[in-house]
Amino acid sequence: DREGARAALAALEAQLGHIDVLINNAGAAESAPFDRTTDALWDRMFAVNVTGAFVLCRALIPGMIARGFGRVVNVASTAGLVGFAYSTAYCASKHAMVGMTRTIALEIARTPVTINCVCPGWVNTRMTDEAIARITAKTGRGEDAARRSLEAMSPQGRMVEPEEVALVVSMLCSDEARGIHGQAIPVDGGQVMR
């Protein structure tokens, strides 16, 4: 929630002094057919996937600009670049994250602050394990079959490892990445190029 984000930020700034790098990596993924997407599901996806990042960007970017350096990396998803069936709320929230990033980038383009999105595909994490469990429960397919179907979405035929996403995030936070601004960079084994 907004107040919780503000309180956590105030405590962190009291401890560190100031923040020059912001990585918005909170995320939640739930799926439902369009006609069974409830208001509560819609609101949850936007609250977790977009609103917190907005609150933190709005609170921190002005200070970054004033100090002459800042990096913001918003972790979205390939679902922010293309649509996926049965994921209306999730895809909409991740598209909103990409759109917010690009809009802020235009507004702060002449400052020393950069803002970008990293858009992972299926990453070998607990969140993906939970998605596989939901697929298995809804379809009756075995876990191995469900995992293979997700891996097959990538031309590389595999899931991305967390370290691969972290490498791109780390690079975007560096001074050398100052020319990368307002971008949505897929880390997906080629999934969105299909």
Automatic annotation (TrEMBL):
Alphabetized InterPro entries for the sequence: NAD(P)-bd_dom_sf, Sc_DH/Rdtase_CS, SDR, SDR_fam
Lineage top rank: taxon: Bacteria
A Pfam family assignment: adh_short_C2
Transmembrane segments: 46-66, 72-92
Alphabetized UniProt keyword annotations: Membrane, Transmembrane, Transmembrane helix
Keyword field contains Transmembrane helix: yes
The name this protein goes by in its record: 3-hydroxyacyl-CoA dehydrogenase
Originating species: Sorangium cellulosum
Source organism phylogeny: Bacteria, Pseudomonadati, Myxococcota, Polyangia, Polyangiales
